[in-house]
Amino acid sequence: MERQHAFWLPVTVRWADMDSLGHVNNAKYFTYLESARTAFFDVETTGLAGGVGTYAFLAGVGYFDGDVSALFERYRAVIDEREAKLLDCLAVPRTMDEIVNQWIVYRKPREPKEFYEWGEGAIMGKHLERLMRTGAIVLENGRYRLAA
After folding, report:
1. The CATH number of 69-146 is which of 2.120.10, 1.10.10, 3.30.1490, 1.10.3470?
2. This model's pTM is above 0.70
3. Regarding predicted confidence, which is higher, 63 or 113?
């Protein structure tokens, strides 16, 4: 298959996706596209694809080819770098809005502002949840801070 798109994500059709004649239900294609969009957004916002959210509305189908261990190491390094910046930021207790305005993910404000603020908040929310589960930070009176 000739690949003409920058991002591919393979999708396995499950038995439950089909009707009694083996046709894929039309609504399932939206589920496939949502999976691709989510995966693409995650790759783009890490900078692994060479951009930082540049093509956030593009969806496609893709797969990993060959040894992907270096890719996963780079992905993990991005997560670790973000969390280190977030922990530095939380030397002073901050609200979610204050954390979003640090632009740890996107590195600077972008347009459309509401979209990128939402993305920054969603991704920082995941980091905050993980750091709270590990006991590194706490949420107190609407502010996140380092654990004592």
Report:
1. 1.10.10
2. no
3. 113
